[in-house]
Amino acid sequence: MFRERARQATWWSMARRMPVLVGRALAVGRRAGPGDLAATVVFGLGMGAATAWALVATNAVLEEVFAAVPTPDRVRAALPSLLLLAAALLARGACGALAGRAQARLEPKVVLAAERRFNETVTGVEAAAFDDSAFNDHVFRGYATGCDQMGVLVRTSLDVLTGLVAIAAAAGVLGTLHPVLLPLILVAMVPQWWSSAASARLRYRLTLRLTEVVRRKFMLQQLMIDRRTAAELRSYTMGPRLRAEFDRFAERELQARLRLATRMALIRVAGGALGGAATVVVFVALGALLVEGVVPIAAAGAAVVAVRVAQGALGTVLVSVGQVYEAGLYVADLVELEEKARERTPRRDLPPAPEGFAEIRVEDVTFSYPKADGDGDGATGPALAGVDLVLPRGRTVALVGENGSGKSTLAKLLSGLYTPDAGRVCWDATDLAGVDADDLRSRIAVIAQDHTHWPMTARGNVVMGGPEDDPERLARAAGAAHADTVVADLPRGWETLLDKRFAHGHEPSGGQWQRLAAARGFHRGDDGAAVPLLIADEPTSALDARAEHRFFSSLHAHAGRTGATVVLITHRLASVRMADVVVVLERGRVVDRGSHEELMERGGVYRELWDLQAQAYRERERAQEPDPTG
Hints:
Blueprint: H1 2-8, H2 11-32, H3 34-65, H4 71-124, H5 133-177, H6 181-225, H7 227-235, H8 239-291, H9 297-343, E1 359-367, E2 384-392, E3 396-400, H10 407-414, E4 422-427, E5 430-431, H11 437-441, E6 444-447, H12 458-463, H13 471-481, H14 484-488, H15 510-524, E7 533-537, H16 545-562, E8 565-569, E9 581-586, E10 589-594, H17 596-602, H18 604-624
Parallel strand pairs: 3-8, 3-9, 6-7, 7-8
Antiparallel strand pairs: 1-2, 1-4, 4-5, 9-10
Membrane topology: Multi-pass membrane protein
Pfam families: ABC_tran
InterPro entries: AAA+_ATPase, ABC1_TM_dom, ABC1_TM_sf, ABC_transporter-like_ATP-bd, P-loop_NTPase, Type_1_exporter
């Protein structure tokens, strides 16, 4: 992957793509700040026109000064031209200031527009995309550099335009003096262009090569500064180990950047030497024309000024072109991310999901997670293989099995987060792969195993999946999850910010967070007609036995009240007895199903798991009994 991208980072490939990238960036600029973009262009053209005006006035002044008349008369004759020169310089300065103001206003608008587009892109892709290492690399580069570089691309493109106008003005004056000066100016451009482009290409190739290294560094640093990891990091004295791991990746990055610095220094020296030689050639040619009498001394003086103006503008253009070239490489990454995301974004032209179902049918479903990049084989087999299942409406279905049996993967397929590699998940006869994904998920409530601790208020953590202005619905959801007792203890009730990293923030315990996450699911699923499916994936792992019993009672009451189908995943089989149907999975396959009593009578995997847990509970109870000989 890296080699392919590095091969694309050549002068000719980027020269072909640069007009498209610049056009895209300017289109973003037009959408983000049309007035500022127009002002930058207009005043940039004004600077070029003022430059040409100044050079013409300079030539006129020198002609008068070097005229064969007494000195006072020369000065008086030059006064009108001097006034014109002063006016031209004043106009050029004013245009430059106004163009700079417009440009400074435009760049943050472009960056914000790019950030909004980036956010829309990454939040619209399917969840499975984030299991792909290559996609994560694209996202990281877009997050770390792409959006800012879009602003740089717009700014430097406008700098190039302004500089080219100034060069055109100087070249026009030089062309009127003698045509041979024009190709000499072009010769002077080549070394600086080569130096800028080569340096940009080296920096971009290094960025590609170091993407994963920098991402690992960033993640390690986040682990060291994140409040959620602070306690365990110190409990297990992980600081030295994380620092050593960080240093390992940082050293790789440092050595690569040191090698880059050496190579870029050599390129700059070579470019500077060649550029100096080209400048000498220009002035030698001008001197020869003056000696031969081809141009008068006044015109030669004006030519010197024009050459200096052209060189200054040329330097600005070359620096800007190098920045355009480099920013274009990063923007190309952002564009490629959008293209990759488009491939992994659910279609928006699909019909809406059914409003409900009589049953959910899982038909011969197979699903595998993406293989890891590198030399390894990644996953050893499918997470689900040939799964057939029927979930009737209004029933509680428990999925049980050992770790890695496919329970959570099946839940992700049922919730519309993942799409099967083969087979179908249907609501009645409707294949869910053929309906609008967002509309489908709006009809499903999920109590996730790895629920997010959103840095919002307690109210915001619960109502995010449903209406925000329904206090009765909020109260029912909180009561069903027993989160009302959690909120009652918060310093500001429902308006308490649940993040101690901010002022007046509060951090609930693990069990309290789990109740709030459960309330979120109950709130979303409160309207059983609109949300006919509730999935609870290990919803009680942080709850004590009493709280767990209350939760499962509420879960079954919710199913009875709303008529929703409840899919329950839990390792605690004592709670599974309440389920109408128990489905047993092993190594991605359904190996048994039935009620608790039927499965216990048949024996098999379920009976084995039940007996193991029962034995563990009995041993725990015996260990807690007082010694009668005490």
